[in-house]
Amino acid sequence: MLNDRKKKILQTIVEDYIENSQPVGSKKLVECYDLGVSPATIRNEMAELEEMGYLDKPHTSAGRVPSTLGYRVYVDSLMQTNDLKEEEVLFIKKTLENEIIEVNEIVKNIGKAVSDITDYTVFSTGPDVTDAVIEDVKLILLGSNMLLIVVLTKEGSVKETVINLSKTVTEEVIQKLNEIIRIKLKDEYVKNIKIDVLKYISNELSVYVDILFSILNEIMKLINENDITLDGRNNIFKHPEFKKYDLAKSFLDVLEAKQLIKEVLQVEDKDVNIYIGDENEHSEFKDFSLITFKCPENLGIVGIIGPTRMDYAKVLSVIKYINQILKNKYKKGGYVNGEKE
Amino acid sequence: MLNDRKKKILQTIVEDYIENSQPVGSKKLVECYDLGVSPATIRNEMAELEEMGYLDKPHTSAGRVPSTLGYRVYVDSLMQTNDLKEEEVLFIKKTLENEIIEVNEIVKNIGKAVSDITDYTVFSTGPDVTDAVIEDVKLILLGSNMLLIVVLTKEGSVKETVINLSKTVTEEVIQKLNEIIRIKLKDEYVKNIKIDVLKYISNELSVYVDILFSILNEIMKLINENDITLDGRNNIFKHPEFKKYDLAKSFLDVLEAKQLIKEVLQVEDKDVNIYIGDENEHSEFKDFSLITFKCPENLGIVGIIGPTRMDYAKVLSVIKYINQILKNKYKKGGYVNGEKE
DNA sequence: TTTAGCACTTAAAACTTATGAGTGCTAATC
DNA sequence: GATTAGCACTCATAAGTTTTAAGTGCTAAA
Fold first, then answer.
1. Which of residues 223-252 of B touch A (CB under 8 A)?
2. CB within 10 Å: which end of chain B, N or C, has fewer?
3. Which B residues 292-321 touch A at CB under 8 Å?
4. Strand duo B65-66 + B55-56: pairing
5. Architecture of domain B4-78
6. Does residue B28 approach strand C to less than 7 Å at its CB?
7. CATH top class, domain A86-128+227-340
8. CA distance B7 to B4
C-alpha cells in the first residue's frame, strides 16, 4: 500500500514532529535527513500521503503534520522501540526495588517511574479485584463502636476501612462475626460474592444481623473499589501544546474525572493499547493520546496520557523494559503477602 | 489617618476590583456607587491614596488597583462579613452532617464545603498530632509476615499502616508485643514519646528487639504524619487572573509542594490568619493570598488559597459560620471514637 | 521519474494608526 | 478652601496594514 519511500517519509515526519512540535516541510526534511531525493520529489510524495489521509496541513504555507491515521501507521508498523539510556534503566530498577509491603504499591512505583522518565502524566490502578480470591477478613474493634475491617486477598492486596457501628458490641461478638465471615468468604472469588451469599451469611446469625449486614456491605465496597493513583500531573506544562489555556484546562479537568479514568483503564483488549486522539471512545480524551499497559501477573494497569504528539516509541520502550523486569521478578503467579511465592 | 471619604473610596475600589477584576476609574466609581462627589474629587483622593501606598496604577491610563497595603487595610478595618445565602447555609450544614467515622474526616468535609462555596482551592489537615494522647495501639498479623499497625488517639484519630516483618512471627508473639506497647504508650502524650522511651520499651523484650523496634519506629512515623487533603484544585480556572499561563502553572506547582503547604499551615498565630500576596513568608506564595483557619477543638487546620484579588469577606463569612457550627457541635473537648463526648 | 524554477498562499511578525478609558492639572465655581 | 468642569495628555488595547519567510503546487526541462 505504501511504498518504502512513502513509509520512510511518513516515519521521518512523525518523528520530527514529535521531537520539535513544528509542522515539517519538504526542504527541512531533505536537509536534516538523508532521503536522497530533492524537495520537489518529497513534495509530490507528501501531497499523495496527504491525499491518502496520513498527513494534515494546518494551512497552505505550513509544513505537514501527522493525522491520526498517520500516527496509527507509525505506531503499528514504522516505529521501533529503543534501548533505554543507562540512567533510565538504573532509575527504573531503583524505583521498582523500593520495599514493597502491599501488592498495590508495585503499580504505584511503576506509575512514578514512568511519569518521571517520560514526562507524561500517568495514572495507575492495582490488581483487578474481580479476579481476586479472598484470603482473610479481619474485624478489629476500635473503642466501643468503631470497627476496622481488613480484607486480604491471595494476590497480596490489603484493603482497610473503618466504620461506625450502630450499637455497642463486645469483643466476643465481633470475634464470632469475624469467624462466620472468614469461613464463608475465605478462598472465595471476589466476583462470585453476590448479595445473596451475603444474605445467606447474615441469616445464620440473627441477633446482630444489621451489624453483620453493614459489615458485609462495607466488605463488598472495599473489595470492589480500586483507587486511582496519579503521577506527574503537572508534567503537561512540559509540552508546548498545553501552553494553550483551554487545552491545559481540559486536560486537568480530565484528570479530575476519576470515574472516567477508571472506565478508560478497564479495557479488555491487548496488554498494551494505544489510543490516538479521536480514536479514544470518550470524547474528553479526543485531544490526547492514551497508552494503557496491563502489567503482567495481574499487578495492575497503568495509563499514560499526553498530547497526540506523544513520544510513542519512548513510552513503549519504557513499558517494554518494565514489563520484562516485572515478568522476571514476579514470575510464578504473583506477589503474595509481602513475599514472592 | 484616613478620613472617612478616603476609607469609603478605598473600600469601594477594593470591592469593585474583587468583583470585576478590572482596574477601577474615577468615573465608574461615581456612576456605580453613591459617593456624592464628582470624578475630579475622587481623582484627587485616589491620587493621595496612591501616594500613601494603598493603591497601585497598572499604567497611566488605567484605573486604580489595590496594593497589598490597600487590601490589608480593607481586611483589617473596612471589610465586613455578611450572612451567607440560605442555600450556602444548607449546603454547609449538609456537608458537615455527613456521617463521620474518624476525626480527620471532619476537616475533610470542611475543606470540601469551603472550596465548593468559595470557588477557591482549599487544603486541610487534621488535628495537630503533637497535642494528641494515645488511646490504644493494635497490632494485627496479616498472613505470616505482614503486620497491620493501628494507632488510636483520644481525639478520635485512627491511623493505620502495614509493614513487612523481617522474620516470621507467631500470633502469640505479636500479642505479647502489642501488650507491652499498649501499656507503655496508652495515655501518653504523643509529644512526650521520644526515642529513649522507645529504647526503654525495646530493652524489656530482647528476643524480638528488632521487630519491636521497627514497629515502634513505624508508630512514631504514623503519629507524627499529618496528611494534606486538597479540594477544588481546578477552581483556579474560575478566576481570570489565572488565564495567564505562567501564573496558573506556578499556582499548580505550589499545590504539588506538599511539604511547603504543611509548613504554611503550621502557623502558631491567631485562629484565622490572612496573608496577602507578598506578605507571605514563602516566595512561592507571593502572587497569591492565603487564609488559614484553625478549627475549634483542635479539629484541624484549613488553608484557602486564591488570587490576591480574593473575596476575603466571602471567605471569612464562610469561616465564621463554620466556626460557629463546629463550636456548637463539638463543644466539650472534641470528638472521640465516633461519638460526641 | 525526478527536479529546477517560479508564482502563489498564508500565518506570523512587525509596524501603524485609531480608540477610549483614565489621568492630572488649571481655572472657575460653590 | 473644597469641589468640579474642562481639557490636554498618556498609554494599553484593538484594529488595520505591510512585510517576511516558510512552504506549497504546478510546469516544463533534464
1. 233-234, 237, 243, 245, 248-249, 252
2. N
3. none
4. antiparallel
5. Orthogonal Bundle (1.10)
6. yes
7. alpha beta
8. 5
CB A322 within 8 A of CB A96: yes
Q: Return per-residue pLDDT of chain B as tens, 341 residues.
A: 789 999 999 999 999 999 999 999 999 999 888 888 999 999 999 999 999 999 999 999 999 999 999 999 999 999 999 999 999 999 999 999 888 889 999 999 999 999 999 999 999 999 988 888 999 999 999 987 899 999 999 888 999 999 988 888 888 888 888 888 888 888 877 777 766 666 666 665 556 677 777 887 888 888 888 899 999 999 999 999 998 888 999 999 999 999 999 999 988 789 999 999 999 999 999 999 999 999 998 899 999 999 999 999 999 999 999 999 999 988 755 444 444 43
Among A108, A206, A105, smallest CA distance to A159 is for A105
**Fold topology of A130-224:** Enolase-like; domain 1 (3.30.390)
Measured from the CB, is A61 under 7 Å from any atom of strand C?
Answer: yes
Closest residue of B to A165, CA-based? B338
Nearest to A338 among B146, B233, B338 (CB): B146
- pTM for this model (two decimals): 0.91
Task: Report residue A122: phi and psi, to 5°.
Answer: -130, 135
Inspect the interface and report whether the beta carbons of A162 and B101 lie closer than 8 Å. yes
Count the alpha carbons within 13 Å of A37 in the hemisphere toward its beta carbon: 13
| Domain extent listing, chain A | 4-78, 86-128+227-340, 130-224
